[in-house]
Each structure stands twice: as C-alpha cells, then as structure tokens.
C-alpha cells in the first residue's frame, strides 16, 4: 500500500497562527519605540514591554509552554521589562523556509542545523550561531526510536522488525519535517551499520534496500513529527518512528505507549539561533540574545529534560542520565558524512530517499 499524506483540520490551527504572525511580527517592537542604543552600539533593553517572536519546530511546543513564562519571569526580575511572545510552531523545514522567506521571527528553534543554515544563507542570521552561546549552537539532544502500543503487540525490538508483513509504520514527510529526516538518517545509518558488521565496510546499496524494505510498510507521511504523533494517537499505525523525547514525555504523562530503542540509531541535535536581521529591526536584540542564552542554562535544561530531551549541559545530563538508554550502535551525523553529504546522498532530487519513494 502506498503511503498517504494525512491532511486536514489538525493542521489548520498552526497554519492560521503562522499567517497571523506574518501579519503581526513586523509590529513586534517594544512600547518605548525600541530605538535607544547602549554603549556597545546595540539597542538597549528599556523598561516597559518587548515582544519576542519565536519561530520553532512543532515538537518544541510543549516544553516552550513552560520555558517561555520561566524566562519572562527571570527577565522581569533582572530588567523590570515585561516580555510577551508571539509563537509559531511548524514542521522544521516549513518553518525555516518561512523565516528565510520573510516571516520576521527574532529567534529560530529548529530540528536540525541545516534548517538554521537555510535562514543564514538567506542573510537573516549574520553572527556565528554555533559559537555565540556555546554547545555548538545546540540546545537539546535526542535519538530516533520506535513507539508501540501497550504491551508491544507486534513484538517490535529492532529496525528489522519493521520490514515484516502486516506491520504498519508511521513517520513524517522529509520534504517538510526535520524529524522525518532524522528518522530516515537513523534507518539508513542502521543499514550501513549492519552492512559494516557483515562485510567490514559500509554498503550504501545494502542501506538503501534496508530503508526501502521498511518504507514499504509506511501507512502515512504526515507534515511534521508532531502531526505524525497525533496520527498515532488517533489510532493509525502499529509503530511510530519518532524522537525519543516525544515518546518519553507522553509515557511520563501516563499514555500507554512503549519505547523501543534500536540497537543502532542516530544522535539527534536541535539548534536555536537569534535571527539577527529581524531582532535588530524589531529592537529586540538584547532580549533575543538573553533568551537563547537562557535555553543553554541549567534551569532551562532541567525543564527540557522533563519533556524527554537529552540535555546538552553536561551537569544536567549527569543528573538525569539514568532516564536514558544509550544503544550500543549509537552514531551521529558525521557517520553519514555530515549534513552536506546527507543532503546530497539522501535528499537531492536523485537521492536515495526519492528513489525509495518512487519504488526504485
């Protein structure tokens, strides 16, 4: 069965919010005019109020519901200034294209660094975002895992089980979703790992066939990781391939899912950056810088860990390391040659993913 792209009402809210923000972001200046300059030549942070426009990938929504008011409270205590937020949550690649196309977000929070690079290449990020706030620009980590119904009725234990007849698989569409690209990277990389174990070297043809054998069982390709999870919650599919944090946060809330950690999977890293051109235009530079710095702080990292993310802060990760499993075959994007190689090999018009999608 060919996978179908689920569409409909569950995306309408996000779409309307994005449209609203496109109309209002340019008006997001502080009520003092935002034109004062401090000794560094940057816009000063006056008292009164300031609006910060957040453009984030969809999976960040739940944790940001706690992070934003926590930051606002800290900023108010430190500066006397009230921060209000305009928020847009979309599939990562969709959000990146929107910002690069003119959506005036002050801060971008993406599923993968290549989406930040799209915004940078469009001229909106001018600072070295990887070095500006530490942690190579990343604010969270995760891994690609599988989620099943309670009791794991299909007996799913590793990627190979997803190739069995009758197993219905969900993951999102890599054209729009950064999470989907992480999922596909994980499966393709696991195929490379398996071929390497058998032959002593990576075999791209083997990895492609491995990915293709899983994709045959895909029931739907949703727009985003969050939409794919919603489809799973509505009863679609036997197994969902997703971020570990998406599953852990739900399991901790009492949802009857089970996490299956594959023997080989990819380390996911999620970046955040100030969108310099927009923050300077809006007079929100100081608060934008402070917010991204806050995301790297121990306080924010503890909040993110509550939502199933693996902290990038070493001290906080040490506090919560017992909550996470490290699979023996864990690899990062460098195992696949880095993002430039991945974009060329997997996601170019003639790349592996599009060959698999076409059944080739």
Automatic annotation (TrEMBL):
Localisation: Periplasm
Predominant place of localization: periplasm
Superkingdom to which the source organism belongs: Bacteria
InterPro entries recorded: Thiosulph/SO4-bd
Keywords (A to Z) from UniProt: Periplasm, Signal, Transport
NCBIfam families on file: 3a0106s03 (TIGR00971)
Stated name of the protein: Sulfate ABC transporter substrate-binding protein
Organism in which the protein naturally occurs: Paenibacillus rhizovicinus
């Amino acid at each position: 069965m060919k996978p179908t792209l689920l569409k409909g009402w569950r995306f309408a809210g996000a779409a309307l919010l994005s449209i609203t923000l496109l109309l209002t972001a340019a008006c997001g200046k502080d009520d003092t005019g935002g034109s004062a300059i401090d000794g560094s030549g940057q816009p000063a942070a006056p008292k009164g109020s300031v609006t910060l426009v957040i453009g984030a990938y969809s999976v960040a929504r739940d944790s940001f519901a706690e992070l934003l008011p926590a930051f606002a409270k800290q900023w108010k205590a430190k500066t006397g200034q009230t921060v209000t937020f305009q928020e847009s949550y979309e599939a990562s690649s969709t959000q990146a294209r929107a910002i690069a196309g003119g959506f005036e977000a002050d801060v971008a929070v993406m599923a993968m660094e290549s989406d930040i690079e799209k915004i940078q290449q469009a001229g909106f990020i001018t600072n070295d975002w990887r070095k500006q706030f530490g942690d190579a620009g990343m604010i969270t980590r995760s891994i690609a895992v599988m989620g099943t119904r309670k009791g794991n009725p299909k007996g799913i234990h590793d990627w190979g089980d997803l190739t069995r007849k009758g197993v219905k698989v969900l993951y999102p569409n890599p054209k729009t979703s950064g999470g989907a690209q992480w999922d596909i990277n994980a499966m393709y990389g696991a195929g490379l790992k398996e071929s390497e174990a058998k032959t002593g070297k990576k075999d791209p043809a083997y990895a492609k066939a491995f990915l293709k054998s899983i994709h045959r069982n895909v029931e739907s390709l949703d727009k985003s990781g969050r939409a794919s999870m919603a489809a799973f919650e509505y009863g679609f599919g036997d197994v969902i391939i997703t971020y570990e944090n998406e599953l852990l946060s739900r399991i901790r809330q009492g949802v009857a899912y089970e996490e299956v950690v594959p023997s080989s999977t990819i380390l996911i890293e999620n970046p955040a950056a100030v969108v310099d051109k927009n923050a300077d235009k809006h007079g929100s530079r100081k608060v934008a810088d402070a917010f991204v710095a806050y995301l790297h702080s121990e306080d924010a990292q503890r909040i993110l860990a509550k939502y199933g993310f693996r902290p990038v802060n070493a001290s906080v990760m040490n506090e919560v390391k017992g909550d996470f499993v490290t699979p023996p075959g864990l690899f990062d994007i460098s195992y696949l040659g880095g993002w430039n190689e991945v974009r060329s090999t997997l996601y170019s018009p003639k790349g592996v993913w599009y060959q698999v999608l076409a059944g080739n």
